[in-house]
C-alpha cells in the first residue's frame, strides 16, 4: 500500500441521519419495546443494510407486501410513504398500523392530492420503481406522469399544456432535477412550480457539503447502501464537482486499498439513512492507513426534529401517563441512530 502517511480527510457536515430517518428508526425501536416482537415493517424502514439487519435482530420482521402480515398484527409503514391502497388493504386485514412516512414525503402526497383535485396534470420527477414514487403516484394515478430524468422529457404527454405542475421525489440530485424542469418548461411554458421545495432539506444539505469539498478530493467515499437514492446521488455529485473518484460503501471493510494509491485527500460523507457509527468505522479504517488528519467541511447546521407518529405517541402515553420525549437528532450518538 502506498498511501501517504500525512493524508488528509475532509469530512462533510451535515451527513448521515436526517430527521425523517431518525423518526422512522426510533418508531420501530419504540414499537418493539411497547408491543414486543414481532413488529412487522412493510419494506425496508429506511434504505440501509446495517439499520435493517440491526432491527431484524431485535425482532422486526421486514415484508414486501401488506398481505404477508398476519391478520391483526402490528405493521409499520416505512419512511418512504405508501399509496392509499396500502392503507385500505391494511384496514381490510385489520392490521394495527403505525405510519412512519417522513412528514416531508407526506407534504408531497398532499400537494399531489391538491393539484389532482384542481384537475392538473402532475409531472412527478423521480426514479421509476422507487418506493417513494410508487407511494406518491398512488395518491392520484390518473393525474400523475412519472418523469425519470431529463432524457425522459420528450416522452411526456399532457392533456392541457396550460394546466401542468411538476413535483418531485425528495431525494433527487438538485442540479439534475433543475435540468429536467428546464427541459419540461421548454415544452410546457405554463408549467407551475411546487409550492415549496420537494427535494428535502437533508438531501440538499448533504449534496451542498459534497459540492464544497469535491474539488479538493482525490477520492470521495460515500457511506450508504446501493438502494439509497440520496446516497447514490452523493457519489454522482462528488464526481460532477471535481472528485477524481468516488465510491459507495456499506461498511469500512469494503474500502479497497487500491483506491487509496496516490491519494492525498479523501472526502467522507454518508447518506441520510446511515448511522454515524458506520462513518466512524470508515474514519478509523482511514486513520490506520495514514489518513488521520480530519477537517470538517460544514455546509449547513441542521436542527429539525419530528414528533413520533401519532398512533405510537398515543400508546406510549397510555403506558407511561406522560407525553414521550421529543426525538433528539444526535449525529454523534453511538447506538443505531
Ligand atoms: S431524506 Fe428527506 S424526505 Fe427522506 S426521510 Fe430524510 S428528511 Fe425525510
Structural description of this entry:
Mean pLDDT is 94; it is low at 328-335. The chain has 337 residues and is α/β, with parallel strands linked by helices. It has helices at 19-35, 49-58, 84-92, 103-117, 131-137, 174-187, 201-214, 229-240, 276-288, 310-320; strands at residues 8-13, 39-42, 60-63, 74-77, 96-99, 121-125, 144-147, 164-168, 219-223, 245-249, 265-270, 293-298. Helix 1 (19-35) crosses helix 10, helix 4 (103-117) packs parallel to helix 5 and helix 7 packs parallel to helix 8. It folds into three domains: 8-17 and 201-298, Cobalt-precorrin-4 Transmethylase, domain 1 (3-Layer(aba) Sandwich), CATH 3.40.1010.20; 19-101 and 307-320, Rossmann fold, CATH 3.40.50; 104-187, 4-hydroxy-3-methylbut-2-enyl diphosphate reductase, catalytic domain (Cobalt-precorrin-4 Transmethylase, domain 1, 3-Layer(aba) Sandwich), CATH 3.40.1010.20. The radius of gyration is 21 Å and the shape is globular. The two termini are 34 Å apart. The longest helix has 17 residues, at 19-35. It contains ten helices and twelve strands. Strand 2 (39-42), helix 2 (49-58) and strand 3 (60-63) form a beta-alpha-beta unit. Strands 10-9-11-1-12 form a five-stranded parallel sheet, with helices on both faces. Strands 3-2-4-5 form a four-stranded parallel sheet, with helices on both faces. A three-stranded parallel sheet has the order 7-6-8, sandwiched between helices. Bound molecules: iron/sulfur cluster. Iron/sulfur cluster binds next to helix 1, helix 4 and helix 7. (2E)-4-hydroxy-3-methylbut-2-enyl diphosphate binds at residues 47, 80, 130, 170, 228-230, 273. Its EC number is 1.17.7.4.
Amino acid at each position: 500500500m502506498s498511501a501517504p502517511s500525512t493524508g488528509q480527510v475532509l469530512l462533510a457536515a451535515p451527513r448521515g441521519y436526517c430527521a425523517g430517518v431518525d423518526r422512522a428508526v426510533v418508531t420501530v425501536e419504540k414499537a418493539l419495546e411497547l408491543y414486543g416482537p414481532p413488529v412487522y415493517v412493510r419494506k425496508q424502514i429506511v434504505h440501509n443494510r446495517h439499520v435493517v439487519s440491526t432491527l431484524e435482530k431485535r425482532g422486526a420482521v421486514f415484508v414486501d407486501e401488506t398481505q404477508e402480515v398476519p391478520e391483526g398484527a402490528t405493521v409499520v409503514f416505512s419512511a418512504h410513504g405508501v399509496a392509499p391502497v396500502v392503507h385500505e388493504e391494511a384496514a381490510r386485514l385489520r392490521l394495527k398500523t403505525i405510519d412512519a412516512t417522513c412528514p416531508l414525503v407526506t407534504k408531497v402526497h398532499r400537494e399531489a392530492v391538491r393539484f389532482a383535485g384542481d384537475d392538473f396534470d402532475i409531472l412527478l420527477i423521480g426514479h421509476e420503481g422507487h418506493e417513494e414514487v410508487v407511494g406518491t403516484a398512488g395518491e392520484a394515478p390518473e393525474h400523475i406522469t412519472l418523469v425519470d430524468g431529463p432524457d425522459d422529457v420528450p416522452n411526456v404527454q399532457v392533456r392541457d399544456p396550460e394546466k401542468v405542475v411538476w413535483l418531485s421525489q425528495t431525494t433527487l440530485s438538485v442540479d439534475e432535477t433543475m435540468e429536467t424542469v428546464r427541459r419540461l418548461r421548454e415544452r410546457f411554458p405554463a408549467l407551475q412550480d411546487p409550492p415549496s421545495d420537494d427535494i428535502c432539506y437533508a438531501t440538499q444539505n448533504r449534496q451542498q457539503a459534497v459540492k464544497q469539498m469535491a474539488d479538493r478530493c482525490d477520492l470521495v467515499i460515500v457511506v450508504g447502501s446501493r438502494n439509497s437514492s440520496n446516497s447514490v446521488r452523493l457519489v454522482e455529485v462528488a464526481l460532477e464537482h471535481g472528485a477524481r473518484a468516488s465510491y459507495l460503501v456499506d461498511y469500512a471493510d469494503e474500502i479497497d486499498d487500491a483506491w487509496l494509491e496516490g491519494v492525498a485527500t479523501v472526502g467522507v460523507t454518508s447518506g441520510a439513512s446511515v448511522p454515524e457509527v458506520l462513518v466512524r468505522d470508515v474514519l478509523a479504517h482511514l486513520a490506520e492507513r495514514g489518513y488521520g488528519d480530519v477537517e470538517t467541511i460544514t455546509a449547513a447546521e441542521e436542527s429539525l426534529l419530528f414528533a413520533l407518529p401519532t398512533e405510537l405517541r398515543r400508546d406510549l402515553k397510555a403506558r407511561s401517563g406522560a407525553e414521550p420525549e421529543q426525538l433528539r437528532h444526535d449525529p454523534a450518538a453511538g447506538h443505531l441512530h
